[in-house]
Design a protein that fits this description.
about 20% strand; alpha+beta; peptide-methionine (S)-S-oxide reductase activity; Peptide Methionine Sulfoxide Reductase, Chain A; EC 1.8.4.11; Met_Sox_Rdtase_MsrA_dom; oxidoreductase; signal
C-alpha cells in the first residue's frame, strides 16, 4: 500500500508539472511575427512548445520563434482542443530565420539535437499525439535534408529507431498569446523550472557554437 501511495503522489506531481496543465485558454490569435524580405520560416514539433520555442530563439540567425499548432486535420485548433488528442495537431514552433546566418540544415541539426526522436507521441514528461516529433518541410530540398539527417542518425546513433514524422507543411495556427515566450516571461513557473530551463541548458551545452552572444552567459 505504501508503494501504491508513493506512486500515486509521483503521478499527481508530474501531472501538475505537465505543459498541458495551465491557466485558462485565450482566444486563438493568428497575428504572427512580420518577417523581412530575406526571412524564411521552418516548422518543428518536438514536445512542449514552451521548450522548443526557447531553444530555437537561442540560435544565431533565428529572428523569432512562434508557438502554435500544425500537422492536424481540424480548423482553428486551440490549446484545449489539441489536448484531447483528437485534432491531429502537434504543438509546433514556427522558426523565422535569416538563411544568410543559419541554414535550414543547421535548424534540422538543432531539432534532432534537442529532443529524443525515438520517443513516440511525447517528450518526457509530456505524452500524447500533440507532443509527437514532426519535422515539417516546404519543398523537396528541405525534405531531402531531413531524410538524409534521419538516415545518418539512424545509422550512427539510433539504430533505426527514429519515429519522427516527415510531413509537408500546410497550415500553421498561432497559439494563444499567453503561450508566446512563456519560458522567458515565467522563469519561476513550476514546469519551466523543472523541465524547460534544464532542457534549454542541455541544448546550450551541446551546441555552444550555435548560440547568440547573449545566450552564452
Amino acid at each position: 500500500m505504501k508503494f501504491i501511495r508513493v506512486s500515486l503522489i509521483v503521478i499527481f506531481l508530474m501531472s501538475l508539472l505537465s505543459c498541458y496543465a495551465n491557466t485558462q485558454v485565450e482566444s486563438n490569435n493568428n497575428t504572427i511575427y512580420k518577417p523581412s524580405n530575406e526571412t524564411k520560416i521552418a516548422y518543428f514539433a518536438s514536445g512542449c512548445f514552451w521548450c522548443v520555442e526557447a531553444i530555437f530563439e537561442s540560435v544565431k540567425g533565428v529572428e523569432e520563434a512562434v508557438s502554435g499548432y500544425a500537422g492536424g486535420f481540424t480548423k482553428n485548433p486551440t490549446y484545449q482542443t489539441i489536448g484531447t488528442g483528437k485534432t491531429g495537431h502537434s504543438e509546433t514552433v514556427a522558426v523565422y530565420y535569416n538563411p544568410k546566418v543559419v541554414s535550414f540544415a543547421t535548424l534540422v541539426d538543432v531539432f534532432f539535437g534537442s529532443h529524443d526522436p525515438t520517443t513516440k507521441n511525447g517528450q518526457h514528461p509530456d505524452y500524447g499525439t500533440q507532443y509527437r516529433s514532426i519535422a515539417f518541410y516546404s519543398n523537396d530540398a528541405e525534405k531531402k535534408i531531413i531524410e538524409n539527417k534521419i538516415a545518418k542518425l539512424n545509422k550512427e546513433i539510433y539504430n533505426n529507431k527514429i519515429v519522427t514524422e516527415v510531413t509537408k507543411h500546410t497550415k500553421f495556427y498561432k497559439a494563444e498569446e499567453y503561450h508566446q515566450d512563456f519560458e522567458k516571461r515565467n522563469p519561476n513557473q513550476g514546469y519551466v523550472k523543472a523541465v524547460s530551463i534544464p532542457r534549454l541548458n542541455r541544448f546550450k551545452a551541446k551546441f555552444p557554437e550555435l548560440l547568440k552572444e547573449e545566450e552564452k552567459y
